[in-house]
């Protein structure tokens, strides 16, 4: 495979050299890998919708280069399958850039490949801190669990919460969330009474909730992948009487906009720390949500939407500056700052991870009766604190 990539790179270099000025109007292909089928298919749908909104607002070209997006279905957590899709996109489809990646194992699986093929890759979601350290070609426009879990711990302690249980899905992001919350909370003087690691495939959360309830902490800090697992977890939190027992729920992305209405009134009052709310009060976010509603009636904006929207922005910046000369593309966006639907953001020039505001949010009904994550406090310009810590 290494020889094949070397041959491809050499052929590409010859083609670029002979193309000359005509290169300015050629097509640059971007491969997007995400789940478009199975229980996590909502992620792929929202990635694609956000990209199409960005294209509708900014055109199909950047710097004279027409941009074509090619979508591939990873189906869920599937490292080997994701790596095979990336190889297919690079070798058969001839893409110059990659984007997407919902799950940490999938993103990690492509790191050696993108190093070898020198493919700039924009991560729209996968949130374990170490990912960006695995390849110099990674740029991340989502968040990391350290980035949002530390502010949650600090806010909780400031509200008088002194004891907490932690329950997280047992994979990379969950482990990051656990360590980040515990480190920050205990540094302030708080006590973690229990840590529960839940298998990724878990659907029955009642035993975990009973274990937490029996210990009577002031709060439970949880992390699960947004979507169906979070919905089931919050349902179990309410049905097992933790709210009535005065155990406050603290989280990050569990109050995802795609499941809020399904959770219903049981979600009201739940507090989370996160980098985006569909109800973020800005003109740019209003334009973003309005365009989503116009082009895809019934869709809502959430972390997947804004990660892909800003991911498209990064891709446009790189392609507009260097086209298919991709070995220099990542340098184009080091230190880049812009206004996002989530607020002011920038790409850290060293880590290539997004620096952004983290909002403390509480679920409430808006003036139209819809459930939203209402922002009521903000911690400005937060980097990936996991990379800072380590």
How would you portray this structure in words?
Helix 2 (41-58) packs across helix 11 (303-322) and helix 5 runs parallel beside helix 6 (172-188). The strands form two sheets. Strands 7, 8, 9, 10, 11, 12, 13, 14 and 15 form a nine-stranded mixed sheet that branches. The chain folds into two domains: 2-143 and 281-352, Rossmann fold, CATH 3.40.50.2300; 145-274 and 357-389, Response regulator (Rossmann fold), CATH 3.40.50. Residues 1-24 have low confidence and may be disordered. It has 13 helices and 15 strands. It is of the alpha/beta class. The protein starts with a helix and ends with a helix.
Radius of gyration: 21 Å
CATH topology of the largest domain: Rossmann fold
- Tally of extended strands? 15
Name the poorly predicted regions: 1-24
Main pleated sheet: 9 strands, mixed
Order of helices and strands: HEHEEHEHEEHEHEHEHEHEHHHEEEEH
Strand content: 15-25%
CATH superfamily of the largest domain: Response regulator
Structural class: alpha/beta
Supply the CATH architecture of the largest domain: 3-Layer(aba) Sandwich
Shape: globular
**Number of spatially distinct domains:** 2
The CATH class of the largest domain turns out to be Alpha Beta
Instruction: Summarize the amount of helix as a percent range.
Output: 40-55%
**Overall mean pLDDT:** 92
Tally of alpha and pi helices: 13
**N→C terminal distance:** 34 Å
